[in-house]
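Please fill in the sequence for the structure shown.

STRUCTURE ENCODING:
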């Protein structure tokens, strides 16, 4: 399938700017409220459970609905889905910024996730058809991947600035600026593309995967109170059964929500798994870094945001280097070594102490984490979509995004359970700085184990020559299924 953007090369780079801006807003919204949570909790009288759901509601709705959103984008047109998603995201952000009660804020965050689930796969699919081959595609995906990799940390910085100098509500209202730019720019520089063939939606598949992912994430969120609780076990089992049902349905329906060929490929499946682990770290583990900076080291919102800067700066500095290395060494070495570097950074963070100096205990660890995640994100977006037929571009990009968001939701829940076990179930205000720091340290150890697992996944699943793994480095993306 062709896009008229290829007939107007001068517009494709502006399209990259618009689409990267979209990626930034949906990723940073996973973390921008983190630093503002203490003030939002006080202003709206949120319970600790509601506080966690301010983060989880967004990631859960986003991740659970991405497959459906990707298919809808394929059918109604990716540009149309992009614009609808942008406008809906803006409306939900406005509602959240004006929320007067805790449940309203949680609901608004869920609605943001719903529209992000339409917006994000449309953006990535548009990027795929706009840059279908060669060096330009490699550069475009490197930019997009860098934005994806740094968006979470940028969200913490921006959240700190807005909370310190304006109000926590601006962590939601600032999205209106992105929406105006995105809608105006998208209307001008993006060209419509849509999948060919049947436009029937797989309702059974949509229900089973959405309820399955929701049950799974909710089960993990209940693990904070104990893994052996009946509700925790029940929802985890229900989630597994529903996802099994989803696979069964997809193997039998004529027009599946997720054609199994998209995930059955070993290399692409490995990329999706690594994407999930990356989401667990960038969405889940960074929350506890924020808590340590504010609750233990006593930093204000702005100072805590600035203190997170070494992570995105390291990733952005590495990005052009990794981009040049990609055609030379291929994605596999990056995806094996990158997670190990990130694991070293996270393990270093586990050694934090209540009186430790930031420049000694935290900044070097964040640099290592940023370098490692840079080696992960630069090849990952491209690899996850390599060889995907144009008809499946939207759903494949949805899986890539869904993996990161669901990984973030599950990661946050697992790390919260590790933290809760370390503090013995006590509230944060009831625990001294030594025990609090020790609990944060255990979450970083768990996160480092996640990254080692990502390296193993890359070593065992991402196999093949450079041309086989990334045909887009010099060839057209194959259209055969």
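FILLED IN BY: designer on duty
SEQUENCE:
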């Amino acid at each position: 399938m062709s896009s008229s953007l290829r007939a107007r090369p001068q517009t494709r780079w502006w399209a990259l700017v618009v689409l990267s801006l979209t990626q930034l807003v949906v990723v940073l919204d996973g973390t921008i409220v983190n630093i503002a949570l203490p003030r939002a909790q006080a202003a709206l009288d949120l319970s600790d459970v509601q506080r966690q759901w301010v983060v989880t509601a967004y990631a859960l709705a986003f991740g659970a609905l991405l497959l459906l959103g990707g298919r809808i984008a394929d059918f109604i047109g990716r540009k149309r889905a992009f614009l609808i998603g942008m406008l809906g995201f803006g409306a939900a952000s406005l509602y959240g910024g004006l929320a007067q009660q805790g449940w309203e804020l949680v609901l608004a965050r869920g609605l943001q996730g719903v529209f992000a689930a339409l917006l994000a796969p449309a953006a990535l699919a548009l990027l795929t058809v706009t840059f279908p081959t060669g060096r330009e595609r490699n550069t475009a995906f490197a930019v997009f991947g860098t934005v994806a990799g740094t968006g979470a940390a940028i969200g913490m910085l921006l959240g700190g600035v807005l909370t310190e100098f304006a109000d926590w509500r601006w962590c939601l209202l600032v999205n209106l600026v992105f929406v105006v730019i995105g809608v105006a720019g998208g209307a001008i520089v993006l060209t419509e593309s849509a999948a060919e063939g049947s436009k029937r939606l797989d309702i059974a598949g949509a229900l089973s995967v959405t309820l399955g992912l929701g049950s799974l994430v909710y089960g993990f969120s209940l693990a904070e109170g104990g893994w052996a609780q009946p509700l925790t076990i029940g929802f985890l089992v229900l989630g597994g059964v529903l996802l099994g049902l989803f696979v069964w349905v997809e193997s039998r329906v004529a027009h599946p929500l997720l054609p199994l060929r998209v995930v059955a490929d070993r290399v692409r499946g490995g990329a999706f798994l690594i994407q999930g682990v990356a989401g667990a770290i960038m969405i889940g583990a960074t929350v506890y870094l924020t808590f340590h900076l504010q609750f233990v080291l006593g930093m204000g919102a702005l100072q805590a945001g600035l203190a997170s800067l070494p992570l995105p700066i390291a990733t952005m500095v590495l990005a052009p280097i990794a981009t040049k290395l990609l055609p030379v060494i291929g994605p596999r070495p990056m995806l094996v070594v990158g997670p190990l570097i990130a694991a070293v950074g996270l393990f270093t963070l586990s050694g934090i102490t209540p009186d430790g100096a930031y420049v000694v205990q935290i900044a070097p660890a964040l640099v290592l984490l940023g370098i490692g995640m840079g080696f992960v994100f630069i090849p990952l977006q491209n690899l996850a979509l390599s060889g995907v037929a144009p008809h499946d571009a939207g759903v494949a990009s949805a899986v890539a995004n869904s993996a990161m968001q669901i990984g973030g939701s599950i990661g946050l829940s697992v790390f919260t359970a590790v933290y809760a076990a370390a503090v013995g179930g006590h509230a944060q205000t009831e625990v001294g700085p030594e025990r609090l720091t020790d609990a944060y340290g255990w979450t970083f150890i768990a996160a480092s184990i996640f990254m080692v697992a990502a390296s193993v996944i890359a070593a065992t699943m991402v196999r093949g020559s450079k041309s086989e793994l990334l045909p887009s480095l010099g060839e057209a993306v194959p259209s055969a299924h």
